């Protein structure tokens, strides 16, 4: 049954966040290492491990929030160490959904979410942007929807709604597994607003004069290491992104209002037409080519 915890003892352990990447673990003491930093998509800290408690992270990393679109809120930390993704809260008539996690939520940020109606459903695109999902689960006890393919990364969490490839946890909000960047990497499509929350499937560079306007777009297996996706991974991306029409594309770091399905499919077609690469591609050149 939803919300049933047959073995919740591990969730009572203290939670610690890695100062190098922001990945949270539950442990009886500061963990000996961080599995996310040891993964091939990341790098280990050059000066050794440092782990912070929630309170220490709250004191070190101020939390901010803003309503970017009506009913869509962004939460982020600045300044921050580690990867530093944003968290999104999406309000609907059927309830609120959280997608992605910022590195740490302040008590004021959690109170703001409470004021906005709390959180009935929670998910994330992949482990790099789990952030402080542990705080959201501890405070609001939402249904946590994560792809079964990334279950091994969720030890600090209680997954209540695992899924394979597609899930609609609230009316109008669709989760689609792309795989690629991670085996369970997924995107969230908001049908009403036509926004695709694309996780790390895509990366943008923004116009300094207009931070909501993307100038380049790229796709990668490992952004830090510059590893491209394979043709089969790109083909799966294309199959997923072709299923729904979106006019905006938001990553955990950027919200590009000028990039939608047409631009994303143009990038994927260009990468599939030659040797795949992870280099940024100017958006205007993609559109000029008529792809």
From TrEMBL:
It comes from the Bacteria. It holds the Pfam family Lactamase_B. InterPro entries: Metallo-B-lactamas, RibonucZ/Hydroxyglut_hydro. Residues 148-212 form the Metallo-beta-lactamase domain. PANTHER family: METALLO-BETA-LACTAMASE FAMILY PROTEIN (AFU_ORTHOLOGUE AFUA_5G12770) (PTHR36839:SF1). This is MBL fold metallo-hydrolase. The lineage of its organism: Bacteria, Pseudomonadati, Pseudomonadota, Alphaproteobacteria, Hyphomicrobiales.
């Amino acid at each position: 049954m939803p919300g049933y915890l047959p073995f919740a003892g591990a969730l009572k352990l203290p939670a610690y966040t890695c100062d190098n990447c922001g990945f949270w673990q539950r442990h009886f003491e500061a963990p000996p290492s961080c599995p996310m930093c040891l993964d091939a998509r990341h790098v280990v800290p050059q000066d050794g491990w440092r782990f912070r408690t929630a309170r220490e992270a709250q004191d070190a990393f101020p939390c901010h929030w803003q309503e970017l679109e009506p009913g869509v809120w962004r939460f982020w930390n600045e300044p921050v160490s580690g990867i530093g993704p944003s968290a999104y809260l999406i309000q609907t008539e059927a309830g609120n959904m959280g997608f992605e996690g910022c590195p740490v939520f302040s008590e004021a940020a959690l109170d703001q979410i409470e004021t906005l109606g709390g959180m009935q459903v929670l998910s994330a695109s992949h482990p790099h942007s789990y952030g402080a999902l542990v705080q959201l689960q501890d405070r609001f006890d939402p249904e946590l929807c994560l792809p079964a393919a990334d279950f091994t990364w969720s030890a600090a969490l209680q997954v209540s709604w695992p899924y394979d490839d597609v899930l609609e946890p609230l009316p109008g909000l669709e989760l689609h597994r792309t795989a690629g960047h991670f085996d369970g990497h997924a995107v969230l499509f908001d049908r009403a607003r036509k926004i695709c929350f694309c996780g790390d499937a895509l990366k943008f560079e923004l116009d300094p004069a207009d931070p909501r306007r993307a100038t380049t777009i790229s796709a990668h297996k490992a952004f830090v290491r510059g590893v491209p996706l394979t043709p089969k991974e790109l083909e799966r991306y294309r199959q997923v992104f072709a299923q729904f029409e979106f006019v905006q594309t938001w990553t955990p770091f950027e919200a590009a209002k000028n990039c939608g399905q047409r631009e994303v499919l143009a990038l994927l077609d260009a990468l599939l037409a030659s040797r795949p690469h992870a280099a940024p591609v100017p958006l205007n050149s993609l559109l000029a080519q008529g792809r």
